[in-house]
What we know:
Layout: H1 11-24, H2 37-46, H3 52-100
Amino acid sequence: xxxxxxxxxxxxxxxxxxxxxxxxxxxxxxxxxxxxxxxxxxxxxxxxxxxxxxxxxxxxxxxxxxxxxxxxxxxxxxxxxxxxxxxxxxxxxxxxxxxxx
Length: 101
């Protein structure tokens, strides 16, 4: 397989890339995120399967998960605080009712 070249520069490089691609056809189990057509091409051209699109998507999803986790944490803290305030209010009402008796 051709190794560590960005783009085929000569006719020989192009022929080698085509030979590598033809040899690799059928070897790859296609997976949208982890072994797609971009992985296939970059492996032929550089010797390393890589997808910039997949990397960007994974970074985006990580950010979404982080923000989602923060939102859930804030909502949980607010709910806990609201519950504590309601409990304190109920306790004060009971004390006030006891004083009336």
